[in-house]
Amino acid sequence: MTTNGGPSSTSRGASRFQRAALPTGPQSADAYPDRATLLRQRKDALDALVDEDLSRARGLAFLVCQAAMVICAFVVPVVLINAITAATADATSIATAAAFTVVVLAVFGVLPVLVLRSAHERAVQRWQLIRDWFKVDRSAPARALPPGAIAEGLALAHDRQQAGMPASSPAGSHEFPNRYGSRGYPHSRFFNAAVLVIIAAIAIPIIVFGDDSAEPNKVGWVLSLLMAAVLAWSVIVKYRTRYRWAAAEQVIRSKERRRWQQRTQLSAGQSPSTVAQGLHPAGLYALLLSPTLVVALIYVTARPRIAGGFVVIASIALAIGFLGVPVVFVRWQGERRAMREAAERLASAFDGAPAVRPVRYGLNQDGQSLGSADSWDQGPSRTGAVVLTGGTLKLRGVDGSDLQLPLSDLVGAAFIPSGVAWLTGSVDLFLESGQAIEMRTPQPRNFLEELAQTGVRVLG
């Protein structure tokens, strides 16, 4: 076993069938002599944990257990029902069938359940360790460690920034948890399990209402498909959880790298830039859909007999596509209302300032704590208001927090587009102290324009 919370390993004489011990969790930052040691042990631990979490052998073992339980769910009811309802049924045949089903339950039911339970308990521990090790480098004590000799592949954005490397330098190999999926696509096992659930959802009603097979077989098929769907759903839940975590981690790491790049651009002495207005999402959707609509119109015009059916199918497709619109609208209205109420509540605290902007702050997490301004950047999310007056940016929160930033303390500001339908973009304020504060406001580009008019450098 390595020191300082490093991953543990089995002895050379251990049996190949003995499960290796999980790596130990990370220790406090002062247990590591430098960041190079911390990052090296972080890599070793994550390699071992993620390799096991995505192991093909583990996946195969799960499939074997799933197949055994599906067979059990089919065989047990079919054998019992046939034995009880048979015309020649007697005590001996029923007892024989019962004894057979007990054996089947023990081998194909109880044993796979015990194996899956053990695997689940280990998976829970492994999942906690993955999360702990992945974020161990982000705490303030960990970032205060001396750098040491950090290998090229282990250096993260913070280490590259501290080493004076260019902001365009590539990410480290262990900076993003890409193995659980990225760019909107979870791991392939998520989709494989989803296909199985869909097949079961389609097949069960067909068997129940349209199959002419014998009643015992019908019960067996339904129960076996339900068992397969339940086990497949557990796989969906697992990889959905993994992907959501990976996506959140990618946002945190990407935001740190983006802030590094934007701070570098703003510190390079470039002059204030006018914020360019982008295409509204509604216009983008209309642009993407217009070729399809034109083709559909031409097709209906050429074949008027099918126009009625085509309209029905198109209406159903549009209805399904727009199911989420009311949800988006309600959430958009709720977000606007919360910020507007905060601004109205705090307007009197700004001595009649002409432009009180509602904001939501505390949008980030796991950041490096450098001072009081960090409380405005790190969660939980809160609402407040901001005004720009007299060369000072004044911020107030509904929780009573107060911060005044002289514009001379700002390196600049940058616009951040939102990837969520009901949220507007936000503005990142870069401070000379090295801190940054992200705030969401209903009109972020107007806020940037106002800052640019006072001489603050902005990136749109």
Structural class: alpha+beta
Q: State the strand order across the main sheet.
A: 3-4-5-6
Largest sheet: 4 strands, antiparallel
Overall spatial form: extended
Please count the beta strands (DSSP E, at least 2 residues each). 10
Distance between the termini: 50 Å
Q: From the alpha-carbon coordinates, what is the Rg to the nearest angstrom?
A: 30 Å
3D structure, described in words:
A hairpin with a 4-residue loop joins strand 5 (392-397) and strand 6 (402-406). Mean pLDDT is 81; it is low at 1-5, 9-17, 271-277 and 367-371. The protein has three domains: 29-267, no CATH class; 281-323; 328-459, Pleckstrin-homology domain (PH domain)/Phosphotyrosine-binding domain (PTB) (PH-domain like), CATH 2.30.29. The chain contains twelve helices and ten strands. It has helices spanning 35-53, 56-85, 91-134, 140-143, 157-162, 188-210, 215-267, 281-302, 307-321, 325-346, 374-377, 444-453; strands spanning 181-182, 185-186, 357-361, 382-389, 392-397, 402-406, 410-416, 426-431, 436-440, 458-459. Helices cover 55% and strands 10% of the residues. It has 460 residues and is an alpha+beta fold. The two termini are 50 Å apart.
What's the short version?
The chain has 460 residues and is of the alpha+beta class. It has helices spanning 35-53, 56-85, 91-134, 140-143, 157-162, 188-210, 215-267, 281-302, 307-321, 325-346, 374-377, 444-453; strands at residues 181-182, 185-186, 357-361, 382-389, 392-397, 402-406, 410-416, 426-431, 436-440, 458-459.
